[in-house]
Amino acid sequence: MKTTHNFNAGPCILPKEAIKAGIEALQDFNNSGMSVIEISHRSKDWEAVMNECRALWKELLQIPDNYEVLFLGGGASLQFCMVPMNLLEKKAAYLDTGVWAKKAIKEAKAFGEVVTVASSAGSTYNFIPKDYTIPADADYFHITTNNTIYGTEIHTDPDSPVLLVADMSSDIMSRPVDVSKYAIIYGGAQKNVGPAGVTFVIIRKDILGKVSRHLPSMLDYRIHIEGESMYNTPPVFSIYIMTQTLKWLKKLGGLTAIQKINREKAALLYAEIDRNSLFKGTAAKEDRSLMNICFVMTQGHESLEAEFLDFAKSRGMVGIKGHRSVGGFRASVYNACPKESVQALVDCMREFEKIYK
Known about the structure:
Layout: E1 5-6, H1 16-27, H2 44-61, E2 67-72, H3 75-87, E3 91-96, H4 99-108, E4 113-119, E5 140-144, E6 146-147, E7 152-153, E8 163-167, E9 184-188, E10 199-204, H5 221-226, H6 236-252, H7 254-275, E11 279-281, E12 292-297, H8 305-314, E13 317-318, E14 329-332, H9 339-356
Parallel strand pairs: 1-13, 3-4, 3-5, 5-8, 8-9
Antiparallel strand pairs: 2-10, 6-7, 9-10, 11-12, 12-14
């Protein structure tokens, strides 16, 4: 099997032991003689998986007892409308830090007044706005903690005078989080916690049931809480791999341990970007993402972009082409990305510089 260094932004690299466990469960789940994608989601064997997955979420993030953890479908994109449908009665506040925040704002406008408290759109979203005021009369304040396309990240849990909602699709489980500061944390699993197909929602239960509008059953958080994430058939295989991924993370030492590893990986690559005469970072240094490291060729070397992509590919690098809307390069170094892959990319950049400097 050839050596591949996977920097895909999502679906992305997963722990090898989680994939191995998934292969075994596809063939025979829990000595049942059936595949994990064949068993009834109402069986005791499957309920045990759901309970274990939920317990791992609560343990790793130290989620308080007055919160529930849901496993739903539809991706984070469905949450863009599900959040305002359940919470927005009159007005909501949003921080615009990228494409996904902008999409969330668009969906929220269908349910009430939306105030954008600040935006970095004028600078191609290369920083996180900091000087803004959250309206005290807003029903909630929404943030996107990590911006995959532009490589910026909110590194701390902000204080908010109103309910705080966060899309943590691409940095959940990469660091400790004070869940008690948030009313809702949601995201697609396909970055740090599993494959595509399942969406996590961490929700404080007492915030629900406050809006006057009718809520369709499938879009009502209360229905999913009551049904323990099995109001309808859940995405069983995605949840199974998520469980195995979280078991790997716990074995590694949990969120404090992975945060240390993630900081080391990001520091290694950013140091090379800053040193190398052919490359430069695109995000403000204080807001640089630890998950999605974005960079471009330096002035005068732009014509080498395609050549570097081919050069890197020949050395086993996969997924480093920047998002189609911004170009350049992007190395997504999520939890399961080994430090050895980051070092291999650094070595590749150094080798390329020696040839073309």
